[in-house]
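Quick bug: Mercuric reductase output formatted oddly.
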Amino acid sequence: MRTIELYPDDVHNQRTIRQGHPSDWVNREGGDYDLVVLGGGPGGLTAATTAAAGGHRAAMTEQRLTGGTCVNFGCTPSKALIRCARAVHEASRGAEFGFRLDAPPQIDFGAVMDRVRKMRSMSSAGDAVEVAEQAGAEVYLGHTRFTAPNAVEVEGRLLQFRTAVIATGSEPVVPPIEGLRTGEYLTNETVFSLTELPARLVVIGSGPMGCELVQAFRRLGSEVDLVSHSRTLLPNDEPEVSELIRRRFEQEGIRLHLGFMAVRAGAGRLLAQGTDETRELPYDALLLGTGRKANVEHLDLGAAGVHVARDGVEVDEYLCTSNPNIYAIGDATFPQKFTHAANATARLCIANALDGAHRPVRELVIPHCTYTDPEVAEVGLTPRRARNEGVVIDAYRLDLAKLARAFIDGEEEGFGAIYTRSGSSEIAGATLVAAHAGEMISELTLAITNQMSLEALANTVHCYPTQAQVFQQIALQHARPQKS
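Here's what came back:
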């Protein structure tokens, strides 16, 4: 069985490994199962434990650490790092709030990363092997591969199934850059092993991961350059969002090289080629934030008769693969690679596969949030998506600066927008740029899921003063008058 290592070998990482891949774990002999789930990340855990709670005999396999990318290399450690960086940034703004520090905040990067690893170990406790077992799922650790349309092998153990779910997540994309060698760059899977702050950091990629970490490291004291072939930050979000985040990054001293392609790396220098010029950027650490791809190449999917498409495993609208007894969820099949999407598709998948629900995935309303400062959250039908689908929408917008709580908090940079299909008052989508957008977008997700109107939102009483009032204020301005 594969030995799992996390660097540095401290008490927090030792705890994470004990919880997610105990070194003394002994797999069962195998057997017949109603459900076998490949992958022990958020989606896999949800699928296996949901099935077990429904009275099905369920097994879950995991090659690395239960909790998957989210707990171990993604959501948890990145948000822990971002929180430390935001605390430093807030301390540096003392003059705005009536206090003064005798010196700038002194950052102990070793202590920052110790807290990151501690938060990871605490979070991973909820996704531990023992927790899954207690919930009724039988856990197998080690490499898993299909051997037949109804069977998998895990470290020599044969598991036969009536239904299987592929939930193996995703892995970092490494771009074809000349001179780029394994071990000479960081990804989300290695950046949280740092114990010393890079004096000069170059980040490749302007998507959510690149934007989140470039701002965090800048606030912690690194000199930072961001390189992207895209001419905008967060290119999948609205142009107004990209421009707002660009201005904030430049104010904070982040050097942006947008519209530049990374062409050569090595010996502490990155060569970036633009349309009219070439730039050479020195670095002490190089971080790749160039996207993720489905982690399915090692599964021997051909033996199971499962087809693979561009974004991963090919599924129909009910999450079923080309093998009618095998389903796929989360990052393994979806281009939207979010933990909450994995959890949602897991629950839907089990309902379809084991309970005959026959619910299409299009029913799911899945928001997303990028945890820059300010945060960027979107849900439903946005202008970009509407243009792609040829749908005409009406947009209603309000600057955060017009809300009392936003300027009281010194967090007035941002805006809220609600979208409806043209001529309708039913809420179809929303964009929010705010310090706490991730905490606030769920109200609009609920509204869209339940087909609520602007009038319903306008009539919902909100606490005053709160930044969440942004959506009610928009609705109050644009809801149709109620007929007497």
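Actually, after a second look the formatting is fine. Residues 19 and 473 are 46 Å apart (CA to CA). Closing.
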